[in-house]
Amino acid sequence: MALGIIAIALGLRFADLDHKVYWHDEVFTSLRVAGYIGPEVTAQLFTDQTLTARELLQYQHFPADASLAKTWMALVDHPEHPPLYYLLAYAWGHIWTASVGAYRALAALFGVLALPLMYGLGRSLFPQAPAIAGLATVLLAVSPVHFIYSQEAREYSLWVVGILLANLTLWRALRNPHWRGWFSYGVALGFTFYGSLMTGLLVLSHLIFVVLTQKPRQWLAFALANGLALGCLAPWLWVIGRQWQRLHSVTAWIHESRPWGFLAQLWGLHYSAVVVDFNLPLDHGFTVVGPTVVLGLVVLALGSVWRSYDRELGLFLGCLWIVSPLVIIGADWINRGQMSSTTRYFLPSLVTVPLILAPWFYAQITAAKPLQRLGGHLLVLGLLGVGLMSLGVNSRALTWWNKSFSYPNPYIAEYLNRIPQPLVVVEPGSNALGDAISLSYHLHPETPLWLLAEDRLPPGLPTTKTIFLLKPTASLIGSIEPPWQVEPVQADPRFAATDLVKLVPVHAPRP
User: What's the pTM?
Assistant: First the structure.
């Protein structure tokens, strides 16, 4: 049955990859891989000119003069993203095609590769019970959060592969101390850094575990392995040094303040998404019940591991689970920021959850008491069932919570596609280019988009088209003068009234 569940989960990973909205950050994957530098394209296009959706989408494909050098320069412009996934996507796009489905398929392949690594890690941690490794692998296969990042054209499924590989090689190096093991760990850690710079949090988890459980000789080996990892990362560290100001600019959003109650709600949802995720609104009762149940199970299971297995094993899993989220939350507490609102930054912790739950589930389904065995089987089957249902609902959806501010774009486009002769006005901004292209994937190809040079409307607006403002800022709204005024579009609960605003002449009759 386990193989059947894994097969279904893998099949869903590759189903309708081009169906869901290609959101802003994925758009920038295609831009950078094709060799386009975002600020340069924005400066070139946002000049009060009108382009069709078809013309905007040309920037998602390789130009005639595409080259690896141009792609590299585009990657250097975003030093917060290590280049490995994007260089692989460059090769992948030339072998297959530069399309939504192709780039997401590459991410899905890394999602598949994570499963045997999870099994190998489980076998190393629990050699006396291979079934625990199998159970952890099935839990990862049906994990909604792993499914989400396995279908996103970004580097995070590759990062999960690196996280599992680094955990596996560290554990093996500690169990069988030899220079080859530490060398493997250093290389694996360097690979993981090329998945995400947030790997530093994983290193901190490893460091705390090694200091608490190992002798000083192992500390030295650990330090040398980390030195090797940093040596592997040295070329990109050089890029970061040269692009330090740019790095601060493109990551400034993490310092924006959010209410602590809102952030705490998201922390719980990060973890409940490991087991179940139906994309419910934040005011739904599940956002309290789901995280409480899942986190309760994790704490219960970790306590069981601590009591039933070697304390070193319990500490290893505990460090992997708790250290990185505490650092992220602590950083937000100090800086009054919002980094902890982002699920992907919790991945080193989230991929540990199946390894914590699996041994406790195994203990329940192999217990001596029949009633306990029955309860264990029902619990495992129930969690696997809701996981598969979550994957099924996700695979059919047009959008999902991880699509951020591009979430409503399919519904906005559906509305606009019903309007005769629409004109979509887009003002310049840090997210404008990516969001306009994201919307263009769903618009009729000849739909015009007017790309403003500044956040105010120029004179001489056309009167032959129905004009809409896409996610206008207060500055743009404030620049509207007679004979024009704004009017909310027809009520559509799938996007906010501020996501699309209609511009009408003052004398126009209201419906």
Answer: 0.95
